[in-house]
């Protein structure tokens, strides 16, 4: 069973992080939703955060994990919010189990195919040799040679933890990601459709959802609308949490 943090009481709202992220990335917004009358389930997808590691890694299996999680927790009617890879997992889950989903929110990703674009991040992560028992500062120093953006480094370093005294490791399953890089960009199946209310939110400075993508989004999600948060990139919920929360909570009411 995938790991979760549950907070609040009320209507169930599942929140799913993006690639190389974890439930902790959504703690602040999750707490806001809990205060707003939702029972918030912050999920760690397989091979991420505190969830189990597995050689199987694709959208079908991750959507199935969410289904199994709902069954185990007696969640029959939910709303679901997913960012990036978590957004595509949420899309597939909603299309596969429309009877379970009341509303769907997708943050900065579309249903289309995305070519590989994490090469520099993979180079940085694979450059860290944990057998040399580096300190946290040394891990960041190694990664800084590849990733100049401070925010991106800090996001990745959130998954660094003490596996045992004196031994750091990444929580995510880098070995499996190295073997399955193409899975991240795979499109939603052509026949996947979800007819209930759906909100897509994109970052104004992000290129993940382009104007040209609108027809494809409408094809898969006929009852959808697309909003833009200006002056933010792919991590829109972290860059402008106030506007992100306002948009999502208005849609969920």
UniProtKB/TrEMBL annotation:
<dbReference type="InterPro" id="IPR000073">
    <property type="entry name" value="AB_hydrolase_1"/>
</dbReference>
<dbReference type="InterPro" id="IPR029058">
    <property type="entry name" value="AB_hydrolase_fold"/>
</dbReference>
<dbReference type="GO" id="GO:0016787">
    <property type="term" value="F:hydrolase activity"/>
</dbReference>
<protein>
    <submittedName>
        <fullName>Alpha/beta hydrolase</fullName>
    </submittedName>
</protein>
<dbReference type="Pfam" id="PF00561">
    <property type="entry name" value="Abhydrolase_1"/>
</dbReference>
<feature type="domain" description="AB hydrolase-1">
    <location>
        <begin position="11"/>
        <end position="109"/>
    </location>
</feature>
<keyword id="KW-0378">Hydrolase</keyword>
